[in-house]
Amino acid sequence: MYVLITKVIRTSRAKFYCNRLTTVQRVQNAAARLICNLKPCEHVTASLKQLHWLPVKQRVQYKLCMIMYSIHFGLAPLYITELVSTVAAQTSRPGLRSADTTNYVQPRTRTKFGERAF
User: Fold this and answer.
1) How confident is the model at residue 11 (pLDDT cuts 50, 70, 90)?
2) Which of 13, 46, 14, 45 is nearest to 27 (CA)?
3) Residue 22 has pLDDT above 50, yes or no
4) In this structure, are residues 13 and 60 in contact, taking their beta carbons and an 8 Å threshold?
5) Which residues pair with 86 in a beta bridge?
């Protein structure tokens, strides 16, 4: 049961985005209540810690940090690495101080369809 619930939460996290995070957080809280046999009036935070589950917003941030870490050190697949580029690699910023940093830039898109890809 535990594996099934965590799989549903992971796939629903991939489908929902920022404005849907509260919905996914409710699903995670309900799953924690179900697993830990909590009553509806009891707090879920302690059971989330006991299950070693991060809150949804923090989990998304953690995943993004891990992806950027793997891109920075060359551990990410090529299709992910191509989605961002360093500031120094851009031809429009050769003389700026920001070109000496390890900051990354997401390419601009001109269509709504392109924006949804990120």
Assistant:
1) low
2) 13
3) yes
4) yes
5) 104
- Domain residue ranges of the chain, discontinuous segments joined by +: 2-56, 62-116
| Helix (H) or strand (E) run with residue 9 in it | helix 2-15
Q: Helices 56-72 & 21-36, crossing angle to 10 degrees?
A: 110
Q: Are 103 and 87 in contact (CB under 8 A)?
A: yes
Each residue of 82-112: pLDDT tens digit? 888 776 666 666 666 666 667 777 766 666 6
Give the residues across from 85 on adjacent strands.
105
Buried b (16+ CB within 10 A) or exposed e, 56-92: beebbeeeeeeeeeebeeeebeeeeeeebeebeeeee
